[in-house]
Amino acid sequence: MEEEIFKGQEIIGDIGAYAVPKIMVVGVGGAGSNNVERLANAGLGNEGVKLIATNTDKVHLMNLKGNMTRILIGAKTTGGMGAGGFPNIGEAAAIESNQLLSQQMEGVDLLFLTAGMGGGTGTGAAPIIAKIAKDIGALVVAIVTFPFKLERARTQKGIKGIAKLREYADTVVIIDNNKLLEFAPNMPINDAFATADMITFTSVRGISKTVLEPSLINLDFADLKAIMTNGDISTISVGRGAGPDKIKQAAEGVLYHPLLDMEISKGRGALIHITGGPNTSLNDVTKVGELITKNFPHDADIVFGARVEQGRGDELEAIAILVGISAPAILKGQSFQKQKIYGKGDIRMI
């Protein structure tokens, strides 16, 4: 990369190809594609993030609404009629479409991969797509849903799918459908899953804005990569607050989200970015960070940033990637104890 020289408003040096990280969200299978559809309808595709929906089911892809790239994978393998719940079919479909997927993900720096574990396409194709992105050189963050307990065989397929995904993804964030059932048992089903999708949306949007937009206390892609690589068990969360108690509200929103199940007393690091209105003080942002990390060890690696947005008024928003935490609910559950999961990727639990 050539040396960069700044003179007034002029930038001398060939930095055009390196200045802005390329961020994509790829949804795999029915659940992953539905997630991308919700992200598109929420406007994420208009904020510098490329949205891609992939599936073996042509009808499902055609019915998706919103601004996104749609990729039918494994047309010869499945005839466009789905994987039938068989992960090996989903895997074969992704391998068949390897070149097409590589072309659409060309140059990606940060890939968010979203899928449901336990079915055919998401479980089988997601690890292959993660591998393609890693071969390109991307940081791969997988956000996947884990099946309901009553789904029996799907939970076992889900465990195996996560094990394969960890071989290639830098980070695996798991959203447990059973926590969703506890949180919203009587909510209309579409609204309930949309609530879970908001974790993905707020995290992806928040991280993207953190990397792509300048801040008062700046965070860059290198900071993000340092935190997300080899972070052990971690989670991504967002909290908001307003009024006299906004500092406490924002911090507790990160730590005590109803869909999160985690213990941070053993956390060994965090990336925290605070966004506030024009009247946000340095004390506001540092206090939020202190509350979020107060139970971390003294030698924890904390990376901190802050940005002011004119339209926020008195609101504070905290986006946190907490690494090296303990999440006992699924990891200590019977299904996970029966099978040890090995690989290069790190599990982040939601």
From TrEMBL:
<keyword id="KW-0547">Nucleotide-binding</keyword>
<protein>
    <recommendedName>
        <fullName>Cell division protein FtsZ</fullName>
    </recommendedName>
</protein>
<dbReference type="GO" id="GO:0051258">
    <property type="term" value="P:protein polymerization"/>
</dbReference>
<dbReference type="InterPro" id="IPR000158">
    <property type="entry name" value="Cell_div_FtsZ"/>
</dbReference>
<dbReference type="InterPro" id="IPR018316">
    <property type="entry name" value="Tubulin/FtsZ_2-layer-sand-dom"/>
</dbReference>
<keyword id="KW-0131">Cell cycle</keyword>
<dbReference type="GO" id="GO:0043093">
    <property type="term" value="P:FtsZ-dependent cytokinesis"/>
</dbReference>
<feature type="binding site">
    <location>
        <begin position="120"/>
        <end position="122"/>
    </location>
    <ligand>
        <name>GTP</name>
    </ligand>
</feature>
<dbReference type="GO" id="GO:0005737">
    <property type="term" value="C:cytoplasm"/>
</dbReference>
<dbReference type="Pfam" id="PF12327">
    <property type="entry name" value="FtsZ_C"/>
</dbReference>
<comment type="subunit">
    <text>Homodimer. Polymerizes to form a dynamic ring structure in a strictly GTP-dependent manner. Interacts directly with several other division proteins.</text>
</comment>
<dbReference type="GO" id="GO:0032153">
    <property type="term" value="C:cell division site"/>
</dbReference>
<dbReference type="InterPro" id="IPR003008">
    <property type="entry name" value="Tubulin_FtsZ_GTPase"/>
</dbReference>
<dbReference type="InterPro" id="IPR020805">
    <property type="entry name" value="Cell_div_FtsZ_CS"/>
</dbReference>
<feature type="domain" description="Tubulin/FtsZ GTPase">
    <location>
        <begin position="22"/>
        <end position="215"/>
    </location>
</feature>
<comment type="function">
    <text>Essential cell division protein that forms a contractile ring structure (Z ring) at the future cell division site. The regulation of the ring assembly controls the timing and the location of cell division. One of the functions of the FtsZ ring is to recruit other cell division proteins to the septum to produce a new cell wall between the dividing cells. Binds GTP and shows GTPase activity.</text>
</comment>
<keyword id="KW-0717">Septation</keyword>
<dbReference type="InterPro" id="IPR008280">
    <property type="entry name" value="Tub_FtsZ_C"/>
</dbReference>
<keyword id="KW-0132">Cell division</keyword>
<dbReference type="GO" id="GO:0005525">
    <property type="term" value="F:GTP binding"/>
</dbReference>
<dbReference type="InterPro" id="IPR024757">
    <property type="entry name" value="FtsZ_C"/>
</dbReference>
<dbReference type="InterPro" id="IPR045061">
    <property type="entry name" value="FtsZ/CetZ"/>
</dbReference>
<feature type="domain" description="Tubulin/FtsZ 2-layer sandwich">
    <location>
        <begin position="217"/>
        <end position="334"/>
    </location>
</feature>
<dbReference type="InterPro" id="IPR036525">
    <property type="entry name" value="Tubulin/FtsZ_GTPase_sf"/>
</dbReference>
<dbReference type="Pfam" id="PF00091">
    <property type="entry name" value="Tubulin"/>
</dbReference>
<feature type="binding site">
    <location>
        <position position="197"/>
    </location>
    <ligand>
        <name>GTP</name>
    </ligand>
</feature>
<feature type="binding site">
    <location>
        <position position="151"/>
    </location>
    <ligand>
        <name>GTP</name>
    </ligand>
</feature>
<feature type="binding site">
    <location>
        <position position="154"/>
    </location>
    <ligand>
        <name>GTP</name>
    </ligand>
</feature>
<comment type="similarity">
    <text>Belongs to the FtsZ family.</text>
</comment>
<feature type="binding site">
    <location>
        <begin position="30"/>
        <end position="34"/>
    </location>
    <ligand>
        <name>GTP</name>
    </ligand>
</feature>
<keyword id="KW-0342">GTP-binding</keyword>
<keyword id="KW-0963">Cytoplasm</keyword>
<dbReference type="GO" id="GO:0003924">
    <property type="term" value="F:GTPase activity"/>
</dbReference>
